[in-house]
Amino acid sequence: MLLGEQKTCELIGVRHWLEVQAARLAAVAISPESLGRIESHLSTMRNNRGSFEAFVAADMAFHQELAASAQNTLLAEMLQSVRSLIRVWVERALSDSGHAELTCAEHEAAVVALRAGDPAAAADAMSAHMDSAGRRVMTSIEARPTPDPENEAPVG
Question: How far is the C-alpha of 39 from the C-alpha of 16, rounded, in Å?
Fold first, then answer.
């Protein structure tokens, strides 16, 4: 698949809705063990706000655990596929500690909703996070030099 700007934008939208649905389902299906792992990933993120490689790895683990907590394997697999396709852009979008702080606060809102078992609040928190993350990714895409379509690299 050639992953140009248009398809990347579409994937950001697809990821948004899949992540929101995962959060909604996880709020009612999450086990205490899974919630503990999500909280641990958030703690790792907080402790690595200046180490973007470690931060991004914990962020990915947070989202993977959340998707697994939804107890819908197809949804988790779809999310993993979408995340893999846009991973380079997600990593580039996290460019400073301010973005890391915001991401931690957005994840905390999702964790609070998960702890409360509130699917609407979990969906709202994840939607706000995906809006914010999507804007950062789009900014990083728009900031790149105009690509030569003949040199677009195949992905996948």
Answer: 21
